[in-house]
Design a protein that fits this description.
About 20% of the residues lie in helices and about 30% in strands. By secondary structure, the protein is α+β, with helices and mostly antiparallel strands. One of its GO terms (cellular component) is extracellular space.
């Protein structure tokens, strides 16, 4: 039922001495800076990055192409590699050295970046944790062993290793537009990632004696050289992830002959490494509408029992990617199906690799979740551009171009809980979604975790909702961030915090940015404006290196919304949302207000103000013989000055003027009947938390009907602590609920409700009158007549 709301002019209604100025909540009180522009907080604009948030006409980025051969020694658990890198200097700068990342050094106890944490005496410890402190630390045998670094002709290049970074000093300057070809040979012992942690390594299955390898951060990789950072050579500590360069990859992996390999890009020699039956199933899967087992469960179980000593080489190619990862194991079941991305008519192979321990879940859901994810993300960002998207069950979650590693195993009897199933689906969607953030929209993860994890978690939430409307998403909805926002201020930090310095990593880098974007979409901007702006950001920065300001500026540029107040509060601040209903004042109209005659007030125009103190500038100006002053003859006369009101009019100082206030007339019986059921409700709000947000109200009336109203966050712009809203209803109000759908992340809902119980609420009267036609009001303010408004002709 639609309820009538009377919106009445302030010139008609006056209540308890309130005027237009009073209702603005005294703009001079405690005004902070929550609505000020970000200004110099954002980086200075230049030819590389524009004020609109788009890449500028001078935008550039460097490129690196890789040709890599790898040899996986399963017996020694060692990886040996050789790579040729072609590095293109597209920057306007001359480079006399370049930087590469040696991420595997983080597994070494002597080569690692060594960002320590505080440690305390444990209350209890197991025998695996308790061991004598090794001072100085001895080499545990992990980390990159560089065999040689040479130019294209085989001549040694001078290099220096600094923990997880390697600088190569060039024999001659690499100028703008030139390319450098060089070679690196290396090896490293593959760590047990289950025991040692980290993203890459092996997992051993003791029951059948097999390993499952996830080969990540496995080759020396070029650092990013950019317009906003120069060389991004911050050390890799295991947390802040990666800043990487786009390029083309050709990779050959020599592995045991009974291993199945999946990797970034497309395999170019399936006809040489698969059996004829497996190749036929692969070709069938391309047009299948349900996942087809390319390597069956029976084949995987059989392969587990025979450790082949023969070798096979798998050849992969990938174009326009920032990284390359792969997996290898004889334990894999492998299924796939073709998926069409309608936005660009791209036929993608969605595939999954998993051991028998995950068969009950992954066979049912993994590849379908991969397909659902790339299709949904394509709607909200850009069409998925790559030919392959793959999910690998590896007991953990991590993302790379076209391939990701996830968890989700059943009990030994094949059963699983709803929690395990939903957790598996969530991590598959999240990690596959990383193909878009940051694999394509290629932000600097080493500096800003939120730009990949936060944005990706937000679209993950949208994708989970499309999978199942009742999906138990833990990140994205506003109410899910409340427990974090309730923490004491000394346990909170801004989203705009460097990746290495975040204490509450999950809530800060994943949940809070995802929640903020959801609030923008659902509550502040609306879906249409938000979705257009978000797609614009993805389109502008696909295959480029965006920074936070590029995102902030694009969201405003494409929507027409000034969101600086939101970035300032939600991303740069730690204040929570806690808006409270402080008081509700009720009034009804006095329908018998006596009429008032128009009043006349006499006044004289004051003389123009003059400076009471001769400051040093005026004195020196008079003494300066090079300065000629304008002679104002009217000012010299001192008998009038000019006003502007529909043209200039002379106002005499000594003449008396008259101002009239409007008169009123009594209401007619028809008008009394119209307003007799009207009740006014003034609702006073207090901003207890500090973070401004829209005010959303649900009104419940005595007849059971409801009405909802929303005021934008700008209601706080004149007073960031207090605000008031007055409503006029022709039905009796029973209760008011603030933020009824919990969409602003308000941390205290106990102060969000008011009830008109009829016993404690005091109802007063406000005068209701009819304006007399034909009378003229000349401006008055606080009882003082403004001669500039009062003296002119009509």
């Amino acid at each position: 039922m639609k309820l009538k709301v009377a919106i009445l002019s302030l010139s008609v209604f006056t209540y308890a001495g309130f005027t237009a100025q009073n209702i603005q909540n005294n703009p001079g009180s405690n005004h902070g800076n929550k609505f000020e522009q970000l200004g110099t907080i954002l980086p200075t604009l230049n030819i590389y990055r524009t004020a609109s948030g788009a890449p500028g006409h001078g935008y550039w980025q460097n490129r690196a192409d890789y040709d890599i051969t790898a040899y996986l020694d399963e017996d020694k658990r060692n990886l040996k590699g050789s790579e040729t890198i072609t590095y293109y200097n597209n920057s306007p700068d001359d480079l006399d050295y370049i930087w590469l990342q040696l991420d595997e050094n983080q597994q070494s106890n002597v080569k690692k970046a060594d960002f320590p944490y505080s440690s305390t005496l444990p209350k209890a410890s197991n025998d695996q944790q308790l061991r004598p402190t090794d001072l100085p630390a001895t080499d545990n045998g992990y980390g990159v062993n560089l065999e040689k670094v040479t130019d294209a002709s085989g001549n040694p290049l001078k290099y220096t290793v600094n923990k997880t970074m390697m600088r190569i000093d060039l024999p001659k300057i690499l100028k703008k537009g030139e390319k450098l070809v060089f070679k690196v040979d290396w090896n490293y012992n593959i760590p047990n990632r289950i025991k040692m942690g980290g993203r890459g390594g092996y997992e051993n299955f003791a029951e059948d004696g097999n390993d499952l390898y996830t080969m990540t951060q496995w080759y020396p990789r070029m650092c990013v050289y950019s317009d906003f950072h120069g060389w991004q050579n911050h050390q890799f500590t295991g947390r802040g992830e990666f800043a990487l360069v786009f390029g083309n990859f050709k990779v050959s992996m020599n592995v045991p002959a009974d291993h199945i390999v999946g990797g970034t890009g497309e395999c170019k020699n399936y006809d040489q490494v698969l059996t004829s039956e497996q190749l036929a199933r692969y070709n069938k899967s391309k047009t299948a509408t349900e996942p087809v087992e390319i390597v069956t469960l029976d084949e995987a179980k059989k392969a587990e029992k025979n450790h082949s000593k023969q070798r096979k080489t798998w050849n992969f190619e990938a174009n326009d990617v920032r990284d390359f990862a792969w997996t290898s194991s004889r334990k894999f079941v492998w299924d796939g199906m073709g998926v069409l991305i309608p936005e660009n008519n791209n036929k993608v192979m969605a595939m999954s690799y998993y051991p028998k321990e995950a068969y009950g879940l992954y066979r049912k859901y993994s590849t379908k979740a991969v397909a659902h994810t790339i299709k949904t993300y394509s709607e909200f960002t850009i069409p998925y551009p790559y030919p392959v998207a793959q999910s690998v069950e590896a007991a953990n979650g991590m993302e790379y171009p076209m391939i990701c590693f996830n968890y989700g195993r059943t009990e030994k009897d094949g059963t699983y809980s709803e929690g395990i199933k939903n957790g598996m689906l969530g991590v598959v969607i999240h990690e596959v979604g990383h193909n878009f953030f940051p694999m394509i929209i290629n932000s600097d993860e080493r500096q800003w975790t939120w730009m990949d994890e936060g944005l990706n978690t937000f679209v993950e939430y949208l994708t989970e909702e499309r999978w199942d409307n009742k999906f138990p998403s833990k990140r994205g909805p506003a109410w899910t961030i409340v427990d974090y926002m309730k923490l004491p201020k000394d346990q909170l930090e801004p989203i705009m915090t460097n990746s290495e310095n975040i204490v509450q990593f999950g809530p800060n880098a994943y949940s809070k940015p995802a929640t903020g974007l959801n609030i923008l979409r659902e509550t502040i901007m609306g879906r249409e404006l938000f979705d257009k702006a978000f797609k614009t950001y993805a389109k502008r920065w696909a295959f480029k290196h965006p920074e936070p300001a590029d995102f902030f500026r694009t969201m405003e540029d494409a929507s027409g919304e000034d969101l600086d107040w939101f970035w300032r509060g939600w991303f740069y601040g730690t204040d929570p949302v806690d808006i409270a209903i402080d008081k509700v004042t009720i009034a009804t109209p006095d329908l018998n207000t006596p009429p008032r005659e128009a009043k006349e007030i006499k006044y004289k125009v004051d003389k123009p103000a003059v400076n009471e103190f001769e400051d040093i500038s005026k004195i020196r100006n008079r003494e300066d013989k090079n300065i000629t002053f304008y002679v104002d003859k009217d000012k010299e006369a001192q008998d009038f000055y000019y006003r502007y009101d529909r043209g200039q009019e002379k106002v005499d100082n000594n003449k008396e003027y008259t101002s009239k206030f409007e008169g009123t007339e009594p209401l007619t019986q028809k008008e009394k009947d119209k307003f007799k059921n009207l009740t006014a409700y003034q609702i006073d709000f207090v901003n207890k938390g500090g973070l401004v947000m829209p005010i959303i109200l649900e009104f419940t009336f005595e007849d059971g009907t409801k009405l909802t109203d929303k005021s934008s966050a700008q209601i706080w712009r004149m007073n960031e602590q207090k605000a008031s809203k007055t409503y006029y209803f022709d039905k009796k109000l029973k209760s008011i609920q603030l933020d009824p759908m919990r969409e602003t992340a308000d941390i205290d809902t106990s102060n969000n409700f008011w009830s008109n119980d009829g016993g404690t609420s005091q109802v007063s009267k406000f005068e209701l009158f009819k304006q007399k036609e034909g009378t003229n009001t000349r401006g008055a303010s606080n009882g003082k007549v403004n001669p500039m408004q009062a003296a002119g002709k009509k």
